[in-house]
Amino acid sequence: MGLEMRTGYEGTGPGAITPDGCAVELYSRLAVEGEPDVVAGAVAAGASLLELGCGVGRVTHPLVERGFRVTAVDESPEMLERVRGARTVRGAIERLDLGETFDAVILGSILVHTGDAEVRAGMLAACRRHVADDGCVLIQRERPGAHENLPREVELPGGLTIRKLHSEPVGDGVRSVKVEYEFPDAVWTQTYRCRPLSQEEFEQALAEAGLRIDRVLTEDGSWVRAVPA
Q1: pTM of this structure
Q2: Per residue in 110-132, is it b (16+ CB within 10 Å) or e — as a string?
Q3: Residues in Cβ contact with 122 at an 8 Å cutoff, skipping those fewer than 6 apart
Q4: What residues contact 133, with CB distance under 8 A and at least 6 apart?
Q5: Disulfide-capable partner of 47 in 56, 103, 123, 207 (CB 3.0 to 4.6 Å)?
């Protein structure tokens, strides 16, 4: 199991489970989506990147293949063991201080919606601490309607079915979300805490960290490019 599971977070299924309920073997099976294209469209070729919450390297590896210089951060040693071609750093994002800056910092996997407001503030502070003054921070937000019309499922290539089972309020604007991932030979679940943010709340959180939105990078608004304020 590795590090101690966080309150409100749980994962089930084969193999190691990280403190936020992510299954290492599951994430090693998930295909990369459009993240590398988003990054490549927002930063210069060959840029230095700090990827926060890299997991098994699902996004890291295609970025390395495209010629980016990636430093990949995760607190799970089991996740980092799967990362290839990048410098790896083990540690909690909200406490990270490498004493250096990067052309771009990536905060994906909707980590900005963590249920703990102090952890979110720490993550965004770490983004600002590590981005060059002329650099940018690429942040993934929840898609519109993320907590509506549940349960729902989507079938993906490779026999994977993802079911978002429920999203229930647990107080102070935080929700408990449960997702199931079913392959023909294995099933995983993850339960996690999430804090939806209005546009105003999102911009305020960035401002408190010394960042501002530069532009929206995707049609659905799920990826934004922020710069030092």
Answers
A1: 0.95
A2: bbbbbbbeebbebbbbbbbbbbe
A3: 93, 94, 95
A4: 101, 228
A5: 103
Buried b (16+ CB within 10 A) or exposed e, 177-195: bbbbbbeeeeebbbbbbbb
Which tokens sit at 97?
Answer: 């201080």
**Which three-class secondary structure state does DSSP give residue 41?**
coil
Selection from 129, 119, 137 nearest residue 195 by Cα: 119
- Looking at the DSSP bridge assignments, the partners of residue 196 are none
137/124 Cα distance (integer angstroms)? 9
Helix axes 117-130, 199-208, angle to 10 degrees: 60
> Three-class SS string for 126-175?
HHHHHEEEEEEEEEECCCCCCCCCCCEEEEECCCEEEEEEEEEEEECCEE
Tens digit of each residue's pLDDT (9 = 90 or more) over 5-14? 688 999 999 9
Instruction: State how far the Cα of 75 lies from the Cα of 95, in Å rounded to an integer.
Output: 11
Confidence at 79, pLDDT banded by 50, 70, 90: very high
